[in-house]
Write a structure and sequence with these properties.
Number of strands: 0
Helix content: over 70%
Shape: rod-shaped
Number of helices: 7
Radius of gyration: 39 Å
């Protein structure tokens, strides 16, 4: 191809006046081996553009697939946490029932022994027994409240995860700027006097 025509098309290209056909002509010319030494910088730029245009862009469903996988993982983690919470609460409830059952069983035996014997408790002794039972139940209640209070940090973990997802989206956008960086480097090689 005529070198004068290439230089004319190249000037139009840099001014933004070249069409697709002319751009393709320039790409074909610069991908060949017969490029004059004074046009090596232009060749580098067109080779970079050719390489950047060959980068495969994921299909439109890619983001949906990634978000679906993340959501599935979150659901699995949440169900695991719920399962552990249910097991913990079930264990606590079973312990309370065991303690209450033991207490009632022993209390019933004592009542039967009391009824069988002729001993009678004073009102003060019955009030003391009532207070002891009340204190025992308050202790069990405070232990249960402490155990469920320790689950509060899980909310902070969930919030931190949301912040990391936002940082990840920013990183994806920044990685898309690499192509512009290559173009900028090529332009700086072509026009070193503008620095």
């Amino acid at each position: 191809m005529d070198l004068k025509k290439i230089k004319s098309i190249l000037a139009d290209y840099f001014e933004g006046k070249a069409g697709r056909e002319e751009e393709e002509l320039l790409k074909q010319f610069f991908s060949g081996n017969d490029v004059p030494p004074e046009m090596k910088a232009d060749k580098m730029m067109f080779m970079s553009l050719k390489e950047a245009s060959s980068v495969e862009i994921p299909d439109s469903k890619f983001d949906k697939k990634v978000m679906a996988a993340i959501s599935a993982r979150e659901i699995a983690l949440a169900s695991g946490r719920r399962r552990r919470l249910v097991y913990t609460i079930s264990g606590i409830a079973a312990s309370v029932l065991l303690l209450a059952g033991s207490y009632l069983f022993l209390f019933e035996r004592q009542v039967q022994e009391f009824v069988m014997s002729d001993e009678h408790y004073t009102e003060q002794e019955m009030m003391l027994a009532y207070e002891e039972a009340k204190n025992a139940l308050l202790l069990v209640s405070s232990v249960m409240n402490t155990a469920t209070g320790e689950l509060a940090p899980l909310v902070k973990i969930s919030e931190a995860k949301r912040e990391l997802e936002a940082i990840h989206r920013f990183h994806q956008g920044a990685s898309g700027l690499r192509v512009l960086s290559v173009f900028d480097e090529t332009v700086s090689v072509l026009r070193p006097d503008e620095k």
